[in-house]
Amino acid sequence: MNLIPKKCIHVALALLGLSFSHALDCGSCPGCTLILPGIESSASTILDSYKTLEDRVAKRYEKEILPLEKEILLLEHEIMRETAHIQALERKILLYQKGIVYITESIKELELTRTQTQPNKTNQKKE
Q1: What is the C-alpha separation between 85 and 78, in angstroms, rounded?
Q2: pLDDT tens figures, 66-79
Q3: Whole-prediction pTM value?
C-alpha cells in the first residue's frame, strides 16, 4: 500500500536516487509537518520528467530488447533440440561401437575355433 501522494517530493527524489530528510517534509506525506513553498510544482516537474523518461525506456524496450529476448528464447529452444539430437546420435554411436566389438570378438572366436578344428595344412602335406 502506497501512502505517499504522487506529487510528493520524497517520491521524486527517491526516483532520482536521492534521499530527502523528513525534517524538510512536503506536507503531503503522512507525518509531514512543514509545507515548503514551491516544492509541489518542482516535484510535479520532476515526476513528469521521470514519467516521460519511463515511457521512452518502455518504448525502447518494446522496440529493441523484447524482440531480442524472443529471439534468444527461440535460439535456446533450438539449442535444446540440437543437444537432444546430438545425445541421441551419441547413444547410437555407443551401440554401434558395442556391436563392432561384439562382431570382432565373434570373428576372433570363429577363427580360433576354425584353426583348432582344422588340421594343420603343413602337417598334412608332410604325411
Answers
A1: 10
A2: 999 999 999 999 99
A3: 0.44
